[in-house]
Amino acid sequence: METATCTAPKGRPREFCVDEALGQALRVFWSKGYEGASLTDLTDAMGITRPSLYAAFGNKEALFRKALDLYEREKLCYMSLALDAPTARAVAERLLRGALEMQTSDFEPRGCLRVISSVACGVEAESIRDEVIARRKSSSDALIKRFEKAEAAGELPEHMNAEALSGYLIALLQGLALQAGAGASREELERLVETSLTVWPTK
Amino acid sequence: METATCTAPKGRPREFCVDEALGQALRVFWSKGYEGASLTDLTDAMGITRPSLYAAFGNKEALFRKALDLYEREKLCYMSLALDAPTARAVAERLLRGALEMQTSDFEPRGCLRVISSVACGVEAESIRDEVIARRKSSSDALIKRFEKAEAAGELPEHMNAEALSGYLIALLQGLALQAGAGASREELERLVETSLTVWPTK
DNA sequence: GCGATTATGTACCGATCATTATGGAAACAG
DNA sequence: CTGTTTCCATAATGATCGGTACATAATCGC
After folding, report:
1. pLDDT, tens digit (0-9, with 9 covering 90-100), for A9-66
2. 3-class secondary-structure state, position A71
3. Which residues are in the HTH tetR-type domain (chains A, B) (predicted)?
């Protein structure tokens, strides 16, 4: 009865690495968006056939969700880590610099998969869009919670609350991702981060 | 030889108003994006048939360009007007409040057509994407020019140049549009604008 | 009245979309 | 070996995509 937990490979073994294929699928979704990525694009990049894709991942939408999980786990990990910084300003700095580092990698697509997947789209992608927006909301809530701690610690200046500061910082991060996706140079993005940090309100 | 300028309607007259139909097409592109808007969506909203659409506007891409022209002419006019404000801060305030007003209209789609159309997409929309990015660059250049004037007037604080400030402000506007498109409430957007103005760097 | 011209409505085109039925190949247990 | 299970490859599914042929209807100058 314990066969469920042990790896008993019955039948013909799979000829490709699921994680590797998922990574390639992520890159395609990342650079083309959910609707812009066709199954041909995906299978070509993943090096597998359509039936293999469906057998291993379910369908296009399930594949996207798994790719989004991978993206958040591997590429967005700096966001939760940033919340551990000692001050609100340090949190903002880690978020901005983390985003900058990700957006200026030479080996990954530009732009943010979350941003890309949350803009207007056809009907087929609406559930995807809703889910991405929901996931972003939970990130936003975490940031608000962190800034509320800073607020309680008296870090925030007058007439500035946690929610307002959080929304403001997220807008900057979204703008950064958008400009990166539109082909902004590394210098432009660095300048944006530096300007944001210069302007950052401290008590 | 002057017949080119006069309106000589030869043949069967058109049964719909081109401008009105274009306005409806704009709303569809605005809420679904270029690729997300199918010809069926467009003709349904415009109240015309496919051949009428092609006869009047050329094809989907040409229709989008005309809709984009209309959008920039009618919905983005506040942007060029904002540049006439007396100070850099006043320019920023007009831009932020103008964007807020547009994003909180009860009768128009949320989000910004330019932002929507400049994110990642399939191959068919790449030329659209490139054009939108180019148009945004010219807006950005105009803003930089305006801030250079402010810089020359000594309005900008130390370690802050026109390009940096422009990129920063545009990032905020993009974040505003993105959050509006994702369903942010009017209060959230107002708070974002107020926070941005509170934080705005003055000498 | 008459062509000439242009718009409209129907019905269709080939291409591509996501998805899958089918048949054979490769591993297992017996 | 046989049977079972799972994977791979080919090729097809119906639906939808953007774009059009075609015939008809409405207005022109004459």
Report:
1. 788 889 999 999 999 999 999 999 999 999 999 999 999 999 999 999 999 999 999 9
2. helix
3. 15-75
B182 CB within 8 Å of a chain A CB: yes
Distance from CA of A172 to the nearest CA of B (A): 6
CA count, 13 A, side-chain hemisphere, A18:
10
CATH tag, B18-70: 1.10.10.60
Q: Burial letters for B61-91: b for 16+ Cβ neighbours within 10 Å, e otherwise?
A: eebbbbbbebbbeebbeebeebbebeebbeb
Please provide the CATH number assigned to the domain covering A75-199: 1.10.357.10
Q: Cβ of B167 and A195 within 8 Å? A: yes
Tens of pLDDT, residue by residue over B143-170, are: 999 999 999 999 999 889 999 999 999 9
> Which helix or strand (DSSP H or E) is residue B53 part of?
helix B50-57
> A73-82, A174-183, B121-130, B190-199: which has the minimum mean pLDDT?
B121-130
| Segments making up each domain of chain B, as ranges | 18-70, 75-199
B181–A118: do the CB atoms touch at under 8 Å?
yes
Structure tokens at B2: 């002057």
Q: Which of A8-22, B30-44, B65-79, B147-161 has the lowest mean pLDDT?
A: A8-22
For residues A83 and A147, give the distance between their C-alpha atoms in angstroms, rounded to a whole number.
9
Nearest nt to the A9 alpha carbon by C1': C28
- Tens digits of residue pLDDT in A85-130: 999 999 999 999 999 999 999 999 999 999 999 998 889 999 999 9
Instruction: Give the pLDDT confidence score for residue A158 in this predicted structure.
Output: 87
Residue A91 region by backbone torsions, left for phi larger than 0, else alpha for psi between -120 and 50, else beta: alpha
| Separation between Cα atoms, residue A10 and residue A19, nearest integer Å | 20
The CATH code for residues A18-71 is 1.10.10.60
In chain A, beta strands by DSSP E: none
Give DSSP secondary structure letters for B90-149.
HHHHHHHHHHHHHHT-SSS-SS-HHHHHTS---GGGHHHHHHHHHHHHHHHHHHHHHHHH
Quickly tell me which residue has 């200026």 as its tokens.
Answer: A104
Rounded to whole angstroms, the Cα distance separating B68 from B65 reads: 5
Q: Which residues of B touch A186 (CB under 8 A)?
A: none
Please, are residues A191 and A106 in contact by the beta-carbon 8 Å criterion?
no
